[in-house]
Fold this protein.
Amino acid sequence: MAENKLTDPRARVGETEKMTINLGVVDLGQVDLLVQEGFYSNRSDLIRTAVRNLLASHADTLRQAVARRMLMLGLQHLSRTDLERAVAAGQQLNIQVVGLARIADDVSPELALAAIASVSVLGAFHASAAVRLALAGRML
């Protein structure tokens, strides 16, 4: 069966995704004022802090939802060897991740189709363009 390599999402400092938000001009002005006053180094710092604080306030709800839905939290990296093992065992994987799911660059579309039954990612999914295209019909 595939070996799940899971890490704490905050331990991967370089693993970030860009998110765009729209704010009203008054809210944006207040953000800029807090930055100018030295409370935050920049707008992104304030937004990251606000999101982390909000997520922390919902930590129990998030833990329960992850457990109830049997999701993996963090980073799941699937190598070619992991997928070959699943195929050899006659198994297909259901990838369910909150965070980052990554399929190695040396995985062929054919191997991905043979080894992966479904992909559900809340966060980011990194795979080659060919593998993403092959799995498009299995993305939930």
User: Anything to note?
Assistant: The chain is about 45% helix and 20% strand. Confidence is low (pLDDT under 50) at residues 1-13. The first strand starts at residue 72 and ends at 78.
